[in-house]
Amino acid sequence: MGIVAILILLLGMVPPALSGVGLMNVAVAPIASPTAAEATPSAEATATEPPPTPEGTPAPKPSVAVDTGASASIEPPTPAPSATPTPSPQPGLWRVQGYVVDESGNPLKNVCVVVGPHGCQKYSPHTDDQGHYFLDVAASKDVTTAFDFYFEMPGRQTVWWHFIPGGPIEFNVILKPSN
Question: Which helix (H) or strand (E) holds 136?
């Protein structure tokens, strides 16, 4: 037992001893602190990219659900030349998709598409740079499943869409500023 204690003591002393004779350099890494410019977000970043809805935010229920006929008439933006095409749904699935834009028709990025009553979650779908979202649901004419979709973004009114899919569907949304 005495030999083990001596070995542990010696091994603990080796790095400081080597450091003292210049054979091993031990340096403390500096911790970066944000500068004033980095600590405050720029007005441009805030205006163009609002923060995503925080995970676990409960979905508010607007007073009235909209039906599928309330889909906004939106001209989809042209995808960027380097955009990756959206994959087609697998057999046995119907695609629910659309675009989310502001009142001027500009696409809204990072809008949380909440499915069900549990609010925006870590793996909830979000709109891409073009304001596009999609979700695939089981295709079934025999079983009717109703869905509640909430389109949420901080600083914008939440839109609640209640529907029963009967096939692939496109639903476009205009999110107005909250009052």
Answer: strand 132-138
Is 98 part of any domain? yes
**pLDDT given for residue 138 in this prediction:** 86
Residue-wise pLDDT tens digits, 106-156? 999 999 999 888 888 888 999 999 999 999 888 887 878 888 899 999 999
Query: Does any domain span residue 30?
Result: no
- The better pLDDT of the pair 92, 59 is held by 92
Buried b (16+ CB within 10 A) or exposed e, 88-103: ebeeeebbbbbbbbee
Mean pLDDT of the chain: 73
Domain that holds residue 141: 62-78+89-179
Say how many domains are in the chain.
Answer: 1
What letter would DSSP give residue 135? E
Pick left, alpha or beta for residue 131 (phi over 0 → left; psi -120 to 50 → alpha; otherwise beta): left
CATH of the domain at 143: 2.60.40.1120
- CB burial of 64-78 (b: ≥16 within 10 Å; e: otherwise) equals eebeeeebbebeeee
Q: Say which amino acid occupies 37.
A: A
**pLDDT over 90 (residue 172):** yes
129 found inside a domain: yes
Name the token pair of 146. Answer: 């109703």
In a domain, 47, yes or no: no
